[in-house]
């Protein structure tokens, strides 16, 4: 994912066919070397798109293409008429937006704070500790979260009742409104350290001379952060932001599935789980594919939108 | 550029070829009933179940079978339930001679990979016919295709010596309260309430009255299916089948069940229901139950067996559970033991690639014969069991070996081939009045703890089963069990069932946790939601399925 600074094209467009073939022959080894990767991408990323045709059929496994029944847009119509679809779409977008806002800003702040720590040993220990939860599976994290929030000896409720803040233990896991927050915070706890690595790496690449110059000019810590560190990692921030916007709709369903329970399903069910339950789970491969196509299209549109906006205002883009 | 086009063209061409290869040439073979080979023959076999005790047909018992039938097996056992292997077989069109496809039989039948066994059994399978007996009709595939493709390998006429579901109380509860009658939900509630008042904590932790579980589909086992059983109906999945008209009805829509859920609502209101019931996950539930501080459960034995075992291992006999046939009021009876008849299910089929189907069916028939079954259950006479006074007896040493040697099956072959042909169930007797299997009620009684024996004695019974209304008290259900009627994949019925299940998962806990005054309101919303999900249409479709099964099974 290279950042291409927009600048004037330095090469001349090739108008004449002969010179194209000329350069092809001239650069044949380069073309030849890139070939395996082109084939790789084609086979694993483009050929599977063939499966999208399933969305327009009543697909039955084990039958050949010719035997499938074509139904046009029927599955899409069904999808857009299902109330439940809008409910899960709301949940998906709500949780991913909350996750984006917190899960994006906190790692940056954390990375900046960590960067300001002068003691090397302390810094690396802290960093290791914070990114370790990334390697803990969601099953375990969900277990910890429910245990901590439980009314049956959960730490949070014990603290709340002991300090007299509440009289009765609160059943956090049955409050639909709280669920989004719980998921977001659990995700933050798990991924904060990991997500800050890329920013720390970007900070390491800033020329130390800039800081020295700033110091000479009389800039304090905060000034240095504001004028050197932040602008220094701006390209990284933008790339990460654009890519996460592109992923807004595909947030998976692991955490919601594991943390959710039947009393708050109206808040916990997300698009991917819906696709699993009502698509593949019922053997409705076509319906599942239709949801998948919807997902991909929304992702692409979001990505282009975000990219377009940033390109316009900042002259930077991922494409 | 050209190269790319050429390459991609090639790739597309190969893809097409692969796709084309997926089409099977499904010319169904006609079985030649008279063609039969002589001498030793070897069949390949695929089973979707693992078989860690497979003896490769080299043990004494399997050698004896080989001697009698001339058949040996080259078996492959899948660890992944055949989910990948069977579709691959279909795609390649090459099948082993014998297949145990588990849940994937329909795919094989649809691909015409299995032969119709009807005529073969007619001519060469007298023992198979005898084992299935009156249930032979139940082997037919469907109304459209009455062929027999799969021989179910589950036990026939199994006798159940232990109840599978009911209301459970810790043995200490009834003991401390002086063995009160536990017959209705009111009795059950009173027992929990009285005991909890006397013992506010167990082992230093607060006592939990009644704990339920709503982790995904498990809500059906602890919360919604008991509503069936507590209101005098057998468990038929999500639908109640009227025994006279065979009309199917979503069981929550029965008026009696509303009262059952109202009682659960009352339990919650009076603080006897575990507040975490609908939040906890299965492992948390098991951990809680294993800790011994949950005094009441409403569950199936298999779901809480692990916790029961943990309690036994921890030596907490008085914290283990007894099972009682509790119903809403005395007018209802607990239908746990109502007979469904033979349900069939997963089994073995012979593929179109089998060159010698006659020998194959004869082999299966031998396994189903008295001689074959006794070999699989008791072993070889004089080696694994002895005849004393005309009765089969397993010597003590041998029995010890059987119970303690983890590789007994592999070494002796006793039971190694049992899963390949239909066996009689526990309790079925042969012409000499002895059981085919070695299991007996005494075995179950021997496994009871001292506390259990004490409780049972005080209730004047020998087994938990005796507390329940018996099998003979109910007519056999002519439709078997409705939950094992296959719902056509991709049908509207399947979709409505999924939708209503999602509604149930949401509304039932809501109704139970509501304030008692709001219960009716929540319940009405629940009923409306079901109607909106087109549940009436589903009932209609399901009735059709039940009726067509009755027709198929010839009743």
Automatic annotation (TrEMBL), chain A:
GO cellular component: a single term: plasma membrane
Pfam families per the UniProt record, alphabetical: BPD_transp_1
GO biological process: transmembrane transport
Domain spans labelled ABC transmembrane type-1: 89-306
Database matches in InterPro entries: MetI-like, MetI-like_sf
Record CDD domains: TM_PBP2 (cd06261)
Keywords: Membrane, Transmembrane, Transmembrane helix, Transport
TM ranges: 29-47, 93-117, 129-150, 170-189, 232-253, 285-310
Membrane topology, from the record: Multi-pass membrane protein
Gene3D superfamilies: MetI-like
Compartments in which it is found: Cell membrane; Membrane
Protein family (similarity comment): Belongs to the binding-protein-dependent transport system permease family.
Protein name: Sugar ABC transporter permease
Organism field: Peribacillus psychrosaccharolyticus
Automatic annotation (TrEMBL), chain B:
Domain of life, per lineage: Bacteria
Signal peptide: 1-20
Stored Pfam families: SBP_bac_1 (PF01547)
Keyword set, alphabetical order: Signal
Keyword Metal-binding among record annotations: no
InterPro entries: Bact_solute-bd_prot1, SBP
SUPFAM superfamilies the UniProt entry points to: Periplasmic binding protein-like II
Name this polypeptide is given: ABC transporter substrate-binding protein
Organism: Peribacillus psychrosaccharolyticus
């Amino acid at each position: 994912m290279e950042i291409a600074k927009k600048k004037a094209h330095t090469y001349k467009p090739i108008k004449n066919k002969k010179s194209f073939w000329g350069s092809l022959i001239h650069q044949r080894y380069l073309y030849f070397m890139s070939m395996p990767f082109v084939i790789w991408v084609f086979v694993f990323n483009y050929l599977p798109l063939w499966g999208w045709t399933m969305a327009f059929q009543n697909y039955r496994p084990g039958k050949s293409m010719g035997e499938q029944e074509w139904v046009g847009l029927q599955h899409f119509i069904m999808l857009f008429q299902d109330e439940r679809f809008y409910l899960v779409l709301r949940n998906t977008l709500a949780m991913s937006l909350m996750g984006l806002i917190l899960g994006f800003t906190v790692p940056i702040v954390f990375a900046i704070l960590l960067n300001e720590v002068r003691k090397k040993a302390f810094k690396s220990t802290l960093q290791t500790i914070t990114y370790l939860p990334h390697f803990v599976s969601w099953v375990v994290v969900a277990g910890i979260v429910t245990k901590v929030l439980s009314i049956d000896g959960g730490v949070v409720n014990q603290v709340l009742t002991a300090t007299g803040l509440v009289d009765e233990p609160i059943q956090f896991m049955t409050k639909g409104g709280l669920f989004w927050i719980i998921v977001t915070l659990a995700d933050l706890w798990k991924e904060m350290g990991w997500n800050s690595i890329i920013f720390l790496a970007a900070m390491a690449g800033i020329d130390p001379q800039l800081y020295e110059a700033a110091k000479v000019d009389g800039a304090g810590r905060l000034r240095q952060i504001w004028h050197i560190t932040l602008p220094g990692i701006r390209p990284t921030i933008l790339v990460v932001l654009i890519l996460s916007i592109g992923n807004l709709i595909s947030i998976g369903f692991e955490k919601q599935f594991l943390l959710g329970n039947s009393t708050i399903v109206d808040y916990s069910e997300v698009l991917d789980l819906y696709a699993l339950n009502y698509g593949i789970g019922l053997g409705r491969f076509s319906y599942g594919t239709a949801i998948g196509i919807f997902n991909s299209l929304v992702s692409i549109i979001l990505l282009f939108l975000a990219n377009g906006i940033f390109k316009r205002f900042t002259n930077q883009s991922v494409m | 550029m050209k190269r790319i086009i050429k390459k991609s063209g090639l790739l597309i061409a190969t893809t097409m070829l692969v796709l084309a290869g997926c089409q099977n040439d499904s010319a169904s073979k006609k079985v030649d009933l008279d063609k039969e080979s002589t001498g030793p023959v070897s069949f390949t076999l695929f089973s979707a179940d693992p078989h860690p005790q497979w003896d490769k047909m080299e043990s004494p018992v399997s050698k004896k079978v080989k001697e009698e039938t001339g058949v040996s097996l080259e078996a492959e056992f899948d660890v992944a339930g055949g989910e990948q292997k069977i579709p691959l077989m279909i795609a390649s069109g090459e099948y082993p001679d014998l297949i145990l496809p588990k849940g994937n039989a329909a795919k094989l039948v649809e691909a015409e990979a299995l032969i119709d066994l009807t005529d073969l059994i007619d001519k060469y399978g007298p023992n198979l016919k005898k084992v299935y007996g009156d249930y032979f009709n139940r082997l037919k595939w469907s109304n459209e295709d009455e062929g027999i493709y799969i021989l179910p390998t589950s036990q026939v006429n199994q006798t159940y010596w232990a109840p599978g579901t009911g209301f459970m109380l810790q043995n200490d509860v009834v003991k401390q309260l002086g063995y009160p009658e536990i017959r209705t939900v009111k009795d059950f509630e009173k027992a929990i309430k009285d005991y909890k008042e006397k013992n506010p904590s167990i082992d230093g932790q607060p006592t939990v009255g009644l704990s339920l579980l709503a982790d995904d589909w498990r809500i059906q086992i602890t919360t919604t299916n008991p509503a069936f059983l507590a209101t005098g109906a057998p468990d038929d999945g999500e639908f109640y089948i009227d025994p006279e008209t065979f009309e199917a009805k979503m069981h929550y829509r029965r008026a009696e069940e509303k009262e059952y859920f109202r009682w659960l609502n009352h339990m919650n209101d009076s603080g006897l229901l575990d507040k975490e019931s609908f939040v906890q996950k299965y492992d948390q539930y098991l951990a809680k139950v294993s800790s011994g501080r949950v005094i009441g459960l409403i569950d199936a034995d298999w779901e809480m067996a692990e916790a029961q075992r943990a309690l036994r291992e921890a030596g907490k006999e008085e914290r283990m559970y007894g099972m009682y046939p509790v119903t809403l009021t005395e007018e209802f009876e607990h239908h746990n033991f109502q007979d469904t008849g033979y349900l069939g299910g997963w089994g073995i089929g012979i593929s179109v690639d089998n060159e010698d189907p006659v020998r194959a069916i004869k082999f299966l028939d031998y396994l189903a014969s008295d001689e074959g079954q006794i070999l699989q259950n008791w072993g070889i006479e004089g080696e694994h069991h002895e005849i004393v006074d005309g009765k089969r007896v397993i010597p003590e040493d041998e029995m010890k070996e059987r119970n303690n040697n983890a590789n007994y099956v592999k070494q002796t072959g006793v039971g190694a081939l049992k899963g390949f042909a239909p066996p009689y169930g526990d309790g079925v007797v042969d012409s000499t009045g002895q059981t085919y299997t070695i299991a007996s009620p005494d075995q179950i009684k021997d496994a009871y703890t001292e506390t259990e024996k004490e409780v049972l004695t005080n209730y004047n019974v020998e087994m938990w089963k005796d507390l329940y209304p018996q099998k003979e008290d109910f007519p056999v259900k002519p439709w078997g069990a409705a939950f094992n009627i296959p719902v056509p994949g991709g049908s509207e019925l399947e979709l409505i069932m999924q939708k209503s299940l999602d509604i149930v998962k949401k509304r039932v806990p809501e109704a139970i946790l509501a304030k008692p005054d709001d219960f009716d309101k929540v319940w009405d919303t629940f009923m409306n939601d079901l109607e909106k999900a087109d549940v009436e249409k589903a009932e209609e479709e399901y009735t059709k399925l039940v009726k067509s099964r009755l027709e198929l099974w010839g009743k």
